[in-house]
C-alpha cells in the first residue's frame, strides 16, 4: 500500500492525478534493484476513510498494489471523511 497527498501546503503532490486512473491503466513502480514492477488497475473506489483503510490493508491472494489518498481539503485541523482507493494487480516485471 502506498499513501500520498493530492495537495500538500497548497502545492500539487504525488497523488494529484490519482482520480484519473481507470481499470486497465498501468502503474509502474521502480524497485531498489533497478527493476520495475508493473501493476494493472482493476478498481477505483471512493469510500469513507475508515472503510478505505480497512480495504487497502486487507489480505489478497495475489501481489496487489493499493494507492490511497484522502479527498478534498477539509480545512485546518479537520480530517477528510472520504478517500480514493486504487487497486492494481502485478502483471509484469522489467
Automatic annotation (TrEMBL):
Transmembrane segments: none annotated. Keywords: Hydrolase. InterPro entries: Sortase, Sortase_dom-sf, Sortase_F. The keyword RNA-binding does not apply. It comes from the Bacteria. Signal peptide: none annotated. The keyword Ligase does not apply. Pfam families: Sortase. One of its GO terms (molecular function) is hydrolase activity. This is Sortase (Surface protein transpeptidase). The lineage of its organism: Bacteria, Bacillati, Actinomycetota, Actinomycetes, Pseudonocardiales.
